[in-house]
Amino acid sequence: MNAVEVRGLSRSFDGREILRDVSFTVGHGEIFGYLGPNGAGKTTTIRILLGLLAPGAGEVRVLGRDLAADDEARARIGVLFENNGLADRMSADGNLAYYAGLYGVEDPAERIDELLALVGLADRRDDPVGTFSTGMKRKLGIARAILHRPEVVFLDEPSSGLDPGAQRMVRDLIIELSRREEMTVFLNSHHLDEVQRVCSTVAILAGGRIRAFDSVENLTAASGRPAVTVSLADPGDRARACETAGRLPYVTGCDVNGDHLHCTLADPGATPDLVAALVGAGFRIEEVRRSSRSLEEIYLEHVGRAEGEA
Amino acid sequence: MSTFRIIAGREMWLALRNRSILISGLIFAVWLPVMSALGIAAGAGEEVTILAGSIAAVTLPVGVFMGYIFCADAFLREKRDGTIETLLCAPVSLRRLWEGKAAGVAVPAYLMTLFSAAVTVAAVSTLSGTPIAAEPLLLLHLVVVVPVWIAAAAGLIGAAQLALGMRENQILGFVFIFGFIFLIVGLQQVAPGGPGLSWTTEALLAAAGAALLALARVIAGKVTKERIVRTIP
Questions:
Q1: Distance CA B132, CA B140 (A)
Q2: For the residues B191-213, what does the mean pLDDT come to?
Q3: Nearest 5°: phi and psi at A186?
Q4: What CA–CA distances, in Å, run from B86 to A24, A82, A138, B224?
Q5: Cβ pair B91:A85 closer than 8 A
Q6: A261: nearest Cα among A285, A277, A297, A282
Q7: Beta-sheet strand order (sheet of A4-13)
Q8: Eight-class DSSP state of B74
Q9: Distances (CA, A) of B167 to A4, B172, B224
C-alpha cells in the first residue's frame, strides 16, 4: 500500500475544469515534489487529499483511508499551509501545546521541548508568534505540523516568501525530518531548485493534467540519448575537436556549446572511448561531465507544452 | 482533556487578550447602560419590577452584541487568516470545532454582559434611588435567559461566519444583530405579561433562546468543510 494514492481525479469549479484525470502514487518514506505553475491545481489536489474538498471524479487515499470522513486517520497526517496555522497572539509554546492537545500527543512538554530545540526556537518559546520573522514562523509551522509524529506530512509551498538563508534552512529541515522521523513528505512547490535537491520523486501538473511523474534521477537523465560535456585545456581546439568527435561511429552529434563541446552518444558506455579518441588525436582534455537536464528545463518544457495545448 | 475544552479554552484565552475587542466591548458595556439608565430612571419611576424589567430588556441586546464582537475574533479572523484550514485537518469533527469555538466566544461575552448589567443596575439604582440588585426575576434573567441567548447568538453568527464569504459576512453581520434585537423586542411585546419583568416573559424568552440555540446547531451541522474552504479569502 502506498502512502498516497490518487486515481483518475477530476475536479471543476464553476464549470472550469481544474483537475483532469490526475493519477499518481507516493510511496512510504518518499519525499514527493508536486510541481506546477500558479493556478495549476496543486493546492486543490492537496485539499482533496486532506478531505477539505470533495473529488469531482476519481478516488484519493492517504494511508489507504479517506481523510474526509476519518478523524482517526487525520491524526496520522501533518499539514503545513502557507499561513502556518499559528495564532499570532499566542506564544510558540502555547501554539504547540494547543495542537498537542487536539492531536492527543503523549508527554507534550517533552515533545515540544524537542521540536523547539530542533527548529532553533527554544529561547523564543514564551514570545508571541506575532513578534516572529516569516522564517521563524515557518520553522514553528513545520514543528507544529510534525508535532504528533505524522506518517505523512503535506507541505504547501514551505519556502514561499522566505529569504535564501531561510529557504535553505527549510530544505535542510525537510531532509532531516524525513530521515529522522521516517515521514513521507508531500511537498507542493514551484521552487524547482528546492524540489530537485530534496525530492526523490516528482509529478508535474500543468493544464490540469499530470505531465510527468517519475523519480528526479530518471526525469533529469531522460533527455533522449546519453550525452557528455567536454572541456578542453585549449579553447582554440574546440572546432577541430568537434569535427574529430563527430566522425567517431558512437558519437551521434557534436556541437560547440559556449566554452565546451556537447557530444551525444549512441551508447552511454562510449564515454571512455570518446576521451581516448580525443586524447589520441592530440587534444588536451580538462574535464568530462555526463550531461543531464535540470528539473527547471523539464518543468518549463512540460508547462510550455501545456500552455501550447490551451 | 476533551477537544471541546481545549478549543473553548483557547478561544477564551485569545478573546481575553485581544485588546481592541476588549476595549470595544468595554466601551459598549459601559456607554449603553449609562445612556439607558438615564431613560430608565426617568421613565420608570421607583417601581422595582418596572425598573428591573427595563434593565433586563437592555441586557439581552448587549449580550447578543458581545457575542457578535467576540465571534469576529474566533471565527472570522481565523477564516481571514486562513488558519481555519489547518484546524479543519485536525482529528476533530467540524461540529466539535464549532461547539468549542461558540462556547469560547459565549463565556467572555457573558462575562462582559454581566459587567454591563452590573453597571446598569448601579446606574439605575443611583439615579432612581431604588435598590434593584436583589430582584429574583432579574437574577433569573441574568443567570438563565442571557447566557442561552448569548450562546445562540455566538452559535448562529459563528456558523454563518464559517459558511459565508467575507463580503457577505460584513453585510449580514448587521442583519444578524438587528434581527436578534427585533426578535427580542417583539417577544417582549407579545409576552402575556407585557414588556415588564414577569415569569411568562422570562419563560418565553428562555424558550425562544433555546430554540435559537437548537437552530444554530442544525445550521452548523449543514456547514461543510468545502463550503468553509471555498469562502476563505
A1: 13
A2: 85
A3: -105, 105
A4: 24, 10, 14, 15
A5: no
A6: A285
A7: A16-26, A4-13, A57-62
A8: I
A9: 36, 9, 19
Question: Among all chains, which residue has been given the C-alpha cell 522521523?
Answer: A181
Rounded Cα–Cα distance for residues A84 and A88 (Å): 10
For residues A212-245, one letter each, b for 16 or more C-beta atoms within 10 angstroms of the residue's C-beta and e for the rest, the string is bbeebeebbeeeeebbbbbebeeeebbeebbebb
Hey, which residues 186-225 in chain A have their CB within 8 Å of chain B? none
Q: Of the given ranges (A126-130, A151-155, A305-309), which has the lowest mean pLDDT?
A: A305-309
pLDDT of residue B44: 61
User: B10 and A87: CB-CB below 8 Å?
Assistant: yes
Nearest Cα of chain A lies from the Cα of B82 at a distance, in angstroms, of: 6
Taking an 8 Å cut-off on Cβ atoms, the answer to whether A68 and B225 are in contact is yes
The answer to whether residue B85 scores a pLDDT higher than 60 is yes
Position A224 confidence tier, pLDDT thresholds 50, 70, 90: low
Cβ–Cβ under 8 Å, residues A1 and A64: yes
Q: What is the pLDDT of residues B43-61, one digit of tens each?
A: 666 677 777 888 888 899 9
Alpha helices (H) in chain B, listed in sequence order: 3-15, 19-44, 48-71, 77-81, 83-88, 94-128, 136-140, 146-163, 166-190, 199-222, 225-230
- Widest pairwise Cα distance in chain A: 73
* % residues pLDDT > 90 (chain A): 59
Residue from the list A47, A54, A103 with its beta carbon closest to the beta carbon of B91: A103
**Residue A38 carries which DSSP code?**
T
Residues of A in contact with B230 (CB under 8 A): 53
Domain coordinates of chain B in residue numbers?
A: 3-230
Interface of B with A (CB under 8 A): 1, 3, 6-7, 10, 13-14, 17-18, 81-83, 85-93, 225-226, 229-230
Take residue A289 and report the three cell numbers written for it: 561531465
Comparing A208 with A221, which gets the higher pLDDT? A208
A254 in contact with B at a CB cutoff of 8 Å? no
Q: Do B1 and A54 touch (CB under 8 A)?
A: no
Asked whether residue B193 carries a pLDDT value surpassing 70, the answer given is no
pLDDT surpasses 80 at B129: no
- pTM, entire model: 0.84
Note whether A68 contacts B: Cβ–Cβ < 8 A: yes
pLDDT at A222 over 60: no
Cβ separation of B89 and A50 shorter than 8 Å? yes
Asked whether the beta carbons of residue B229 and residue A52 sit closer than 8 angstroms, the reply is yes
Any alpha helices (H) in chain A, and if so which ranges?
Answer: 42-49, 71-74, 92-103, 108-118, 134-146, 164-181, 192-198, 216-221, 238-246, 271-280, 295-309
